[in-house]
Amino acid sequence: MNRLLARFTVWRGIFAVLMLAAAYSTYLRVRYGLGGATNLNDQFPWGLWIGFDILCGVGLAAGGFTLVAVVHIFNVERYRPILRPAILTAFLGYLLVVLALLFDLGRPDRIWHPIVMWNPHSVMFEVAWCVTLYTTVLFLEFLPMVLERFGLHKPLGWLKLISVPLMIAGVILSTLHQSSLGTVYLIVPEKLYGLWYTPLLPVFFYISAITVGLAMTIFESWHSSRAFGRQLELPLLAGMARVLAVLLLVSLFVRFLDLLHRGALPLLLRNRTETWLFGLEVLLTAVPMALLFRAGVRRRAAALYACAVMVVFSFITNRLNVSVTGMEAGSGTHYIPKWTEIAVTLAIVAAGFAIFRVLAQHFPVFEAEQPAAERVEESVEEFALVGNRTRTGVD
Amino acid sequence: MSKGILYDSTLCVGCRLCEGACAERWRLPYNDKVAAEERLSAHKLTAIETHGERYSRRLCMHCVEPACASVCPVGALQKTSLGPVVYDASKCMGCRYCMLACPFQVPTYEWNQRLPKVRKCDMCYDRQRAGKPTACSEACPTGATICGEREALVAEARRRMAEKPDQYYPRIYGLREAGGTSVLYLSAVPFEQIGLRTRVPQEPLPALTWRVLHLVPDVVSVGSVLLGGIWWITNRRDEVARKEKA
């Protein structure tokens, strides 16, 4: 008990320190501008806040649209129990991305400008619109959890009426902007290092968003099962892990095929930082892939979790390679984030965990959506059904 | 017809009068300290660089198809028909995508301002519209910087190279770079030796993103039909199963 309490307070302590550091960083950002709070300069205008908070943030929230597509559009009912946590993660994720954007924009007071000032030739314009619309969609997908909590059945019914077009819109908006974040870098052919610059960047960004979306679903299921003392939906996650393994294989294969076709394979023989970082990316993809192809690994919660973490790190490495390390040589400069940039980034991640925890405690996040009256009897039936399907579904 | 600038590095003596005239026109401070900073910044929109015995001048290249204008989400940057690429600070939200996208690393940012703007040369758009030459070309005592119609400047550059082939590296920088720029360079040595970026693609950059971006309407329409269809099939299957059970 004491040890548990100690662990609890340690985390709270770290959280408090992070928030204080971020508060001071925010003061520096507001008082002294981007120059006072970042190590960015004219040669290197985008750093950690874009590379991690935006690029990784949007990708890590991709579990939401992936699971909505699986459960509601492909109608794979058995994944329903992990749908809501994924939607909540995505909704929180996007809100935090917008928060991070307020730090990074030179004029955060003008964040609404793309809504009224149009340039359809700009990828950023398209991303801005997609993220705005998709955050709205996520809000509407999250809303039933709030309405159920307060027993508001009438608006729940209205939401149900528009739910199918809403979910289709969500999947399409996600497809567009997840890939467009890769398109953003198509404009810098001479700045982005050859291991990463490819006309296929949008395709790779899309595939890796789906992969990391699945990995994040496993990641958050594992964490919430520990935090809330819930049973881990292991058969479900194992089924998902198998899909993940295949997707990892496909993405690795396509990446190398692309290098081959562009004649960029010889770059791998150069002893440069970029080569090693690319290697790290490949390693963090290949190891979980090889492991997840083994049924024994998929059946063990800890191993499954470790694989998911590796996939998440390979994703983060990839996004930071594209946005930071791969851009350094071509920009003729070096960039190491200032402590304030790191503090804000970590605080945003920590805030994400904390808010998820609070919301999951107070709203029906871990329950499948049901009208209150039918909930008890049907949930028993559904539980049996899920159990049956999953037992046959794995191996 | 669109305006341009021809900078002939072989004629430049590094007097920096162009820098002073530019600073004056933008009402930016100019003194020995600023003059010694040999790079573009938010308070120095053109810069003379020393490369051994040679000089080179940096300023916005005013691309014929500018990457900065194509990437700007709010359309704060525009290519005018007159030639200059101009910036409307009242639209800019400070995403700095223009700075990332510029193959010449020209746009700079007011990093230490609380309400910052992007800064870059606008080829004296207001003066040119009034039929006057740019401040820098007016100030240049040696004719290293001249302005005029881009076509005429290309012809003039070719004439100089033909006249004194031994004095010039036989290419015009800006003729094809990034699909062509309104600012053109002549040099005695290969351009990388006077600090110009030579890995810049020879095609217009906006096409690289547009190639993907123009697919958006297709993704939306095909995607909706496809997903709607999949939804209908998968749910229909369940409905039928439920009916058969009952």
Largest sheet of chain B: 3 strands, mixed
Order of helices and strands of chain A: HHHHHHHHHHHHHH
Which two chains touch over the largest interface? A-B, 60 and 59 residues
Rg over CA atoms of chain A: 22 Å
Overall structural class of chain B, as computed from helix and strand content, comes to alpha+beta
Distance between the termini of chain B: 77 Å
CATH topology of chain A: Formate dehydrogenase/DMSO reductase fold
CATH class of the largest domain in chain B: Alpha Beta
Count of folded domains of chain A:
1
Our count of helices of chain A gives: 14
Q: What is the number of independent domains of chain B?
A: 2
CATH architecture of the largest domain in chain B: 2-Layer Sandwich
CATH architecture of chain A: Up-down Bundle
What number is the mean pLDDT of chain A? 90
Oligomer classification = heterodimer
Taking pLDDT < 50 over at least 5 consecutive residues as the criterion, the unreliable ranges of chain A are: 369-395
Bulk shape of chain B: elongated
Classify the helix fraction of chain A into a percent range: over 70%
Q: Give, in spatial order, the strands making up the sheet with the most strands of chain B.
A: 8-1-9
Order of helices and strands of chain B: EHHEEHEEHEEHHEHEHH
